[in-house]
Design a protein that fits this description.
Number of helices: 8
CATH topology of the largest domain: Rossmann fold
Order of helices and strands: EHEHEHEHEHEEEEHEHHEE
Helix content: 40-55%
CATH architecture of the largest domain: 3-Layer(aba) Sandwich
Largest sheet: 5 strands, parallel
Strand order of the largest sheet: 2-1-3-4-5
Radius of gyration: 19 Å
Shape: globular
Number of strands: 12
Structural class: alpha/beta
């Protein structure tokens, strides 16, 4: 593969985390290790990951809560849970949250990598390792450079405009949950941040007016939907 698959690994056990980090990297993947759930969610919101591995029992925020937050803003990224538990209810909860697989400790590192490769093959993520740019109607959008282009016109987005459009583009033609987007970008879904987000939505609508096949629709009581009619 031309670019390395980027994996977010959330594991609070220092020894196991370091071992997994080194082993997965040795297999040709790029890995970012987070030592608790809160850090893991922050890293996910800031980065561009193609795979997520979450320990279920973590301080600050457990793996199920992290997965729920991730799924609210990204319905497609593969998630694999690691747990010391063997409770059937935990496995059911994990799959209900959109897990792609579940591995119970202790496990072999070779088995973990085999599971990762099987999921990537099934989801075709390994065929497009870094989805760093998006096509939105006649626009091309590159979140890495914060650049939104149409024809010869270029718009350099602010950090928040960029993050918001990235979430909308990731969930194109699907509803982006308002509260989840607020927590992802502003860190809190309070009223004042909500008003601020409405201002940024208005700014994005103004830029996207250059292509009348694109619209950001309000979905009452739920959030926003980036619709591409092209």
């Amino acid at each position: 593969m031309s670019e390395k698959i980027k994996i977010l690994l959330a594991e609070d056990d220092n020894n196991l985390g370091s071992l997994l980090d080194s082993f997965i990297k040795a297999k040709g993947y790029e890995v970012e290790l987070a030592r608790n759930g809160k850090i893991a969610l922050e890293r996910f919101n800031e980065g561009n990951f193609q795979f997520v591995i979450l320990d279920v029992m973590m301080p600050e925020m457990d793996g199920f809560t992290v997965a729920k937050e991730i799924r609210a803003v990204d319905s497609k990224v593969p998630i694999l849970f690691l747990t010391a538990k063997t409770m059937k209810e935990d496995k059911l909860e994990g799959f209900a949250l959109g897990a792609d697989d579940y591995l119970t400790k202790p496990f072999s590192m070779e088995e973990l990598v085999a599971r990762i490769e099987a999921i990537l093959k099934r989801t075709n993520t390994n065929e497009k390792p870094l989805n760093t740019s998006y096509t939105i109607g006649k626009f091309s959008f590159d979140p890495e450079t914060r650049m939104l282009r149409i024809g010869d016109e270029e718009n350099k987005l602010t950090t928040k405009e960029n993050h918001l459009l990235k979430l909308l583009a990731k969930n194109k033609n699907e509803v982006l949950d308002r509260q989840a987007a607020l927590r992802s970008i502003w860190g809190d879904d309070n009223y004042f941040n909500g008003r601020s987000m409405d201002v940024y939505i208005a700014k994005l609508r103004k830029i996207l007016k250059a292509d009348d096949s694109i619209e950001i629709m309000n979905v009452h009581g739920r959030g926003f939907k980036l619709i591409d009619h092209s």
